[in-house]
Amino acid sequence: MPPPRPRWETNKKQPPPKVQKLQKTQKAKTSDEVSAPSISLERQQLILDIFKYSFAKRFAEDIKPLLQEIKTHLYNRDFATAFGKNEYLETYAARWSASRALGYADLFWDLRTHFWPVKSIDEESGARKIVCLGGGAGAELVALAGVQDLIIHDEMLPSSTMEVIAVDIADWTLVLYELTKHATTAPTLSKYASAAIQAANAPLIAAGNLAVSLQKHDILNTDSATLTTMLGDATHVTLMFTLNELYSTSVPLTQKFLLNLTSILSAGAILLVVDSPGSYSTITLNGAEKKYPMQWLLDHTLLSQVDGKGTKKEMNVKAKWDKIYDNESRWFRLNPELRYPIELENMRMQVHLYRRL
Ligand SMILES: C[S@@+](CC[C@H](N)C(=O)[O-])C[C@H]1O[C@@H](n2cnc3c(N)ncnc32)[C@H](O)[C@@H]1O
Predict the structure, then answer these.
(1) Does any domain span residue 106?
(2) Where is this region: Disordered (predicted)?
(3) 164: helix, coil or strand?
(4) 303-330: burial string, b at 16+ Cβ within 10 Å, e else
(5) Pairing assessment for the beta strands 127-133 and 236-240 based on DSSP bridges
(6) How many domains does the chain have?
(7) Which residue segment(s) compose the domain that 61 sits in?
């Protein structure tokens, strides 16, 4: 069954918001940075509960054998098998997307003045169109749903509805359907719950504030016309724990994709790239193999003036991207009070945020 497309909230006019001026690029941190979580423990627990309810079937039995099978396929880089059946997809999302959703919600909110500026709303639709490349496993979706209410209630940030488009090579339809359903409906309470608990019971996000869809594509081999339709009016694009996988598949195709992305996105669009710190990719230049850090390849493609063939252009060509935040090693640590049916892990990530000029 396809995921439902919740209705858009219409004519949801807010008073003109005051927006903090974007600051210059924050300097890259050289040492590991651990900051206090930016969102409340209650909200973090709500986010985890979405995964607990969505994958209750997986938690009803021993999840370890399936996890082990998936790990083996991932280790062998056999992604087609690892992401090839719903049992695996649900298990993957239950185990990995849950903690990532917490880390991403923390990031989306911590970087809010950079990530949600006024220009990040499409003038015509009044919505934010957020394209999550490699986002089928749902961590980005639940994290975005988790901060939407905070955005709406923050007078410094412009309020809008959210259209989340997950683009993925694997068919995550069922996972996104379950996560969307549980994010947009209030949890079922025990009939013995107190009147106060029943009165406070609400979904993570109102259905009218979120539209979700999945587009199944191999983004390295998608034609320009499809890419233009998919990304044309995007206000945000995310590449979370996906870029290094793309570079490992093909550095030239990934560079070509990033250049296409650059030419399709409009001024003001935000690009967020998150991956494991210290990710490297191997490139062959003049017959010799050399390893480059992921962020070096990314900056080289986005910030230096290269054409579609990777050739450097004249220096007087106008810059296409501004790097507005950069952190080589950011930690998200789980609060021990959080409750979840299986053990989750803290996460460490490198973070790069760009704005299209
Ligand atoms: C490591 S997972 C990350 C999932 C999610 N973004 C997160 O942060 O939890 C990488 C995702 O990228 C997808 N992917 C890999 N190569 C892709 C490609 N060429 N086109 C589209 N999606 C791709 C995979 O199917 C998988 O869902």
Answers:
(1) yes
(2) 1-36
(3) strand
(4) eeebeeeeeeeeeeeeebbebbbbbbbb
(5) parallel
(6) 1
(7) 33-188+196-356
| Ligand 1 centroid to residue 318 C-alpha, Å | 32
Please tell me the distance between residue 246's alpha carbon and the centre of ligand 1 in angstroms. Answer: 8
Q: Which residue has the tokens 């810059």?
A: 319
**Of the candidates 57, 28, 16, 39, which has an alpha carbon nearest to the alpha carbon of residue 330?**
28
**Per-position pLDDT tens, the chain of length 357:** 444 433 222 223 333 223 223 233 444 444 455 566 789 999 999 999 999 999 999 999 999 999 999 999 999 999 999 999 999 999 999 999 999 999 999 999 999 999 998 666 777 777 899 999 999 999 999 999 999 999 999 988 888 899 999 999 999 999 999 999 999 999 888 889 999 889 889 999 999 999 999 999 999 999 999 999 999 999 999 999 999 999 999 999 999 999 999 999 999 999 999 999 988 887 776 778 888 899 999 999 999 855 545 455 545 567 899 999 999 999 999 999 999 999 999 999 999 999 999
Domain holding 265: CATH number? 3.40.50.150
With a Cβ cut-off of 6 Å, ligand 1 is lined by: 83, 96-97, 100, 134-137, 139, 168-170, 218-220, 240-242, 245-246
How crowded is residue 69: how many other Cβ atoms within 10 Å of its Cβ?
15
Structure tokens at 308: 């579609």
Nearest to 331 by CA among 36, 56, 109: 36
HSE (CB half, 13 Å, CA atoms) of 325? 20
**Sign of the CA dihedral running 243, 247, 252, 253:** negative
166 contacts: CB under 8 Å, gap ≥ 6: 132, 135, 136, 138, 140, 141, 172, 176, 212, 213, 214, 215
In a domain, residue 240? The reply is: yes
Is residue 4 included in any domain, yes or no?
no
User: What is the distance in A from the centroid of ligand 1 to the CA of 158?
Assistant: 30
